[in-house]
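Methods — Computational structure assignment.
A single polypeptide chain was analysed. Its primary sequence is given first, followed by the predicted tertiary structure written as C-alpha cells.
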Amino acid sequence: MSLSKYRNKVILVLLDMLALVLSGMIGLVLRFDSIHSSGHLSTWGRYLLIGIPLYFVIYFYFGLYSRIWRYASAFDLFAIASAVTVATGCLFGVMYVNPEITFPKSVLVMTWFMNVAAVGGIRFLLRLITDIRKKKQSNGRKRALILGAGDAGRMLVEEIARHPELDYKPVGFLDDDKRKIGFKVAGLPVLGSLALLEEIILAQGVSDVIIAMPSAPNTRIKELVQKCTNISIKPRIVPGLFRVLKTGIQLSGIREVQIEDLLPRPEIKMDQFGISEYIRDKTVLVTGAGGSIGSELSRQVATFGASTVLLLGHGENSIYLIHKELARSHPNLNLVPVIADVQDRARITQVFSEYNPQVVFHAAAHKHVPLMEYNPAEALKNNVFGTKNVAEAAEAHGVDRFVLISTDKAVNPTSVMGATKRMAELVIQSINQRSSTKFMAVRFGNVLGSRGSVIPLFKEQIAQGGPVTVTHPEMTRYFMTIPEAVSLVIQAGALGLGGEVFVLDMGEPVKIVDLAQDLITLSGFKPNEDIRIEYTGMRPGEKLFEELLTSDEGTLATRHERIFTARQSALQASIIEEALVHIASLRDQGCMPTQVLEIVATLDRHALSEAAAAQQSGL
C-alpha cells in the first residue's frame, strides 16, 4: 500500500471516530438542551473507550476502509447503514448490560442517524468531488451519441469521463424505453427513441456513435449499423453481455462493429465445472494446433487448467507462433511444441509413447473443399488415415477422451473433403466399440475468419475496391465465430460417453450474399453502388445449402442446450476395415472424387438401415 493510500485511510478513520464522539454530544444537546445534563456526558465519555475500537472493528469488517469511494454507489450506502446499525446495536448491548445504567436510549437512536449521515456524507462527498471534476473534463471535441441508456450505457459514460484524453464529449442517449425519454442518466439526457437516430445525429452534430446494448438481438444491431452507414458514420460497439457482466465496460474493449455482431445466433453458456473436471491437471494433445481451430483449442484448453499442452502440427511456423503466444500468456503452463505429420504413423506412436496424453483434440485436416476435389488422394491420406493413426495410438496408450473435429460437410457429402470427414467419423466410432477410450466427433459449420474462409476473401476484395465475388445468390451457410465453436467443442468433450457424433446449434443459416452486403456496409461502403457484388457460379464439390444432419438421423438432446447428438448407429468394425482396404487401394492408385463419394454413401446407407432395424426391434 502506498503512503498516500495509507494516509487517506487514517484520515477516514479519524473522521469516523470524531463523528462518533460528536454524535453522542449532539444527541445530548438535542435531548436535554444542555451538554452537561445529569452526568450523561461523563458516561458517554467512558463508553467511548469501548465504542471507538468497537466501531472501528465493525466498520473495517464491513469494508468501509477498503472501498474506492469516488465510485460510491447505492449499494455502498447500504453497507454504511448496515455497519452503523451493527456497531450502534453492539454499543447499546454493552451499555445496557448493566441494568443501573441511566444513559438515555433516545440519544443512541439519534447517534445512529448522525453517524449514518456523517460516515456516508464524508464518503459521498468524495464521489461528488470526483463527479464535479469529471464534468469539467468531459469537454472533448468528438460529439458522441450513445445508443442504449441501460447499465452498459451508464458505465460507458463514467468510463469516458475517466479518460479525457480520448476527446469524447457525450451529448446524450437514445433508448426505446419510454420511461427514460426526457430524463437524465449519468447526467446526460435521453434524447429520444432509437427510431430518431439519423435525425438526432444531424441535429446534434454527432461525429461518433457507440452502441451500448450488449443484450440486443443481432437484427437490431444490424439495423442500427445500416442507419449509421447511410449518413457516413461507422459506429462502435461495447463487448457482449457476458463480458460486460464479468469485467464491466472498458474503453479498450469498445471496437468497431464486426460481422459476428450481426449473426443471428443465441448466446453461448458454458458449464465451467464440467469442462475443468476432464481437462484440469491433464496432459492434452491438440493436433493441427497451428490452424485456426487448433490454435483456439490450445488457448481455451490452457485457460481450463491443463498441466501440459502438446501443440502438434506439420507447419513449423504456425506451431512456433501459437507456442510463443501461449508461453507469454500462460508462463506457468508446460507447453510442448511437436512437429509431426498425422500421416506418419511411427512418429505419432512415438509422440504418444513419450508424453502419454490423457485428452486428445484432433483438429488436423485438409479442409479446403474445391482444392481437395483436385487432390482426393491427399484428402484420404490426411483426413481418413491420419485420423486412424491418431485414434489407434490414443486407444493403444489408454487416452481418456478423443474428440474429432468434424464438419457439416460430412452430412450427405457431395465433396471429397466432406466424404473423408464422414469416413473419419465412422473410423472413430468403429474403434470406440472395442476401446476403453471415449471417442466422439463434433460437427459444426463454417467459422468466421478461419484460413481459407469467405470472410478474409471478402475483406481482401473490398480493400481492392471490389468486386466481391459470391458463387450463387441463394447459397447459405451456418456460421459461428472460432471461439464460440471451440468452446462448444470442449463442452461436448465433457458430455461424451463414447461413440457420439455431436451436432452444434449454429443458429440460423445465413445467405452468403447477405454476409457480403453486411461486410461492405461495415467497411463504410454501399453494396452495388460503391462496391459491386458479382456471381461466379458454384465450384466443384460445393452445395447450395449445408446440413448438420441427414433427414433420417434426427437428434437427441444433451445436458447443454446448444449441443445435440446425431441419432445414428456405429457400423461393425469388419465393415469399416473392408472399406478402409478399398479406400487405401484408391489412394495408392490415384482415385477419382466420385469413387470416394460412392464408398461413403454406401456406408451411410448401411448405417441408416442398421439404425432403422435397431429401432424396429426396440419397438
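Note: Confidence is low (pLDDT under 50) at residues 241-253.
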